Amino acid sequence: MGLRKGQKELVERYRGGKCAIPAIPGGGKTHCLSLWAVEMISNGYHKPGKILIVTYMNSAVNNFKQRISAELQKRGINGSKDYFVSTIHGLCLQIIKEKPDLIIANEEFEIIDEVSKIHLISSAIDEWKRYNEREFQLYLDMENLSSGKMGDIYKNWQDKLCRIMLSAISDFKVKGITPSEAKEKCKSLGKDSILSWASDIFEIYDRRLKIGGFLDFDDMLYNAKKMLETDEHLLEKYRKKYSFVCEDEAQDSNYIQNEILTLIANGNLLRVGDSNQAICGSFSSSDFTLFKGFCDAPDTMVYSITQSSRNTRDIIDLANYFVRYVRENHPVPQCRDSLLPQYIEPVAEDDPRPNPVIDEYGIKAAVFESWEEEARGVVTQAMHMIKKHPDKTIAILVPSAWKMSLVINILESRKAPFEQLDNTSGERNGTLKKLGRIIDFLAVPEDGEKFSNMINECILTGTYDSPDFADTEDEVKTMGQRELLSGFLKKYPVEKLLYPVGGIIEIADVPQELLQANIWKDFVDCLDMVRELLEFPNTIVEKLILFISEKLRFDREERAIAQKVAGDVRYLMNQNPRWRLSDLALELLSPKNMFNYFAGIVWDLKGFEPQPGVITVATYHKSKGLEWDIVFLTGLNNADFPVLLEDKFMGEFWFLKEQYKNPQAIIKSEMAKVFEGKIGRDSILESKLETISEKARLLYVGITRAKEYLFLSSYELSKGKRVELPSRYILELRQYIEEAGRI
């Protein structure tokens, strides 16, 4: 089976009890966990129940299912009923559906999506503000804010407050605190306390959820745990159903998830994770110390996976050096436990999947004079690497969405092939954008610009970039023809190309210049499709959407999204008869449209696979679980990757008074005081220590994404009061890289 250290022990030895698998990046934990499940099923060790595997992403669920199914088929075993793979929320939904009447009056409840959740919390804050405007303004630094920009500042504060309140509400729910309990406990804090605000807003938000018949993800966890604890028969049913419980990505578990899986497992609990990749604590209720504590428990068997064939030895050495630096020499002693002493080992030379080897030292580091210069320099180098290594996958990782926007603009201006990896772009909203462009044109078919946009983005399919990126003379010619056809379609208004005859739309004579350019057939094909779209009755919008998906030959994922849009549109138009095609087009073309959440789920199920020659642009957080041949780590500055306590921290809001600049930290401190009895904590210090620790792990994740080449970059800028400095990490790593490169 080609198993390595740690993997072999798991597959061959683990047959029950508590077991932990600490695994380094690229250690093949999915591979060995799948093989362990197959081995158990093949020998019937799991009976009388099933094996339950809980993971975090829908794509990971599919990955596990495919691997286990394929291996069982190789062995001639039909074991589809012997295992169940699910996200934690999928498992909780299954539990809740056993007796939904226990938790909500309406059995036809819905799980609220993230977009609706933001709308709901925003409206709850608006309701709270009607009676608490003084409190809302209390934290704002009015003396130092420009009166002319107060409208923007109010909106910014409201947007930030939405995220802060959702985080606080999640903490309440994870701790099992009800809205009434939260309000009662927070009375002692007074109206000026932000945690007191949170308890009020929690009550409003919870009421609106119930009125709408909604549950959010935290409700699912809380209610599933409550049902298992209070219903002995239900708990016994799940213990019999699942003989073994396995938790993947256990470093991202939270208290309530930990309790649910421990209850169901009844002693047979297997957890796999990497504490050095715990990067979700700042925006979720995850607690990476839970997995560490599980590993350290005296009754837990531990099989460590330490070998990886993902990276070159040079990249492995850099990752290990970074772990040692943090643990031994971090300038803030309290942060030296940010990374555990888990060091990556390369595989043996005779391993069937060896470490990649290149003929040069593939790691570089650079510091630029501004973010703009850094972004341009990185894009230039990335395009150079595409030409030099057209068969390699490549990624540019950025620390934040606003920094990503500049990189995207530069890539677009240089016509570089790229894909933006987030929930509102690339594949994820490409389907919605196609639908939006066509419906936008059909709403106003006489608009030449809408016609041109639809033709170029929907009907002239395929990606054609500048001749610099073409491999052959034929490709250059094809691109020239495409540009020529696009130009003609912009030049001729739609009414000159198509005209009605007796209720049928006919195609006009092909212009002579197109015949001479030898692209008349493409021209007629494009117009023929447009004619069919115009002839289709647009009074039944849901059928029009399905017709568009058929004519554009949508694949399986795109068809699923189109069907969802069609179903939702029927409901929306019944609710609001004034809704027109133009309104639907506007919604579909909006970056934050109501259909994005479902589209994200569809593409998550498919999983992301980087394509050679196409630059992936993603945040560091989005890169977790992925790998590329060539990786650029950008924006390594002291604000995004703080090392010292005096560094600038992103969680601090410039428009708030000094004592309130980090409201998230204040909430954590007050939560610990009111609900845990911990008094006298320095909330600001603790918040900074947590941020420094998590950012160290985030950089470690970034380093270990690269298989062959790795580029680290930052910038140093000083303009008046604006001072942005490189992170201490890149300065330390650059020195190591320069020395290693010389050797």
From TrEMBL:
Q: Which GO-annotated molecular functions does the record name? A: 3'-5' DNA helicase activity; ATP binding; ATP hydrolysis activity; DNA binding
Q: Which residues bind ATP?
A: A23, I24, P25, G26, G27, G28, K29, T30
* Alphabetized InterPro entries for the sequence: DExx_box_DNA_helicase_dom_sf, DNA_helicase_UvrD-like_C, DNA_helicase_UvrD/REP, P-loop_NTPase, UvrD-like_ATP-bd
Biological process GO annotation list? recombinational repair
Name the reaction it catalyses. Couples ATP hydrolysis with the unwinding of duplex DNA by translocating in the 3'-5' direction; ATP + H2O = ADP + phosphate + H(+)
Its EC number is 5.6.2.4
What Pfam families does UniProt report for this protein, alphabetically? UvrD-helicase (PF00580), UvrD_C (PF13361)
What Gene3D superfamilies does its record include?
A: 1.10.10.160, P-loop containing nucleotide triphosphate hydrolases, PCRA, domain 4
Q: Report the residue ranges that make up the UvrD-like helicase ATP-binding domain in this protein.
A: 2-312
- Keywords recorded for this protein, A-Z: ATP-binding, DNA-binding, Helicase, Hydrolase, Isomerase, Nucleotide-binding
Spell out the family assignment given in the record's similarity comment: Belongs to the helicase family. UvrD subfamily.
For this entry, the protein name equals DNA 3'-5' helicase
Query: Which organism was this protein described from?
Result: Acetivibrio mesophilus
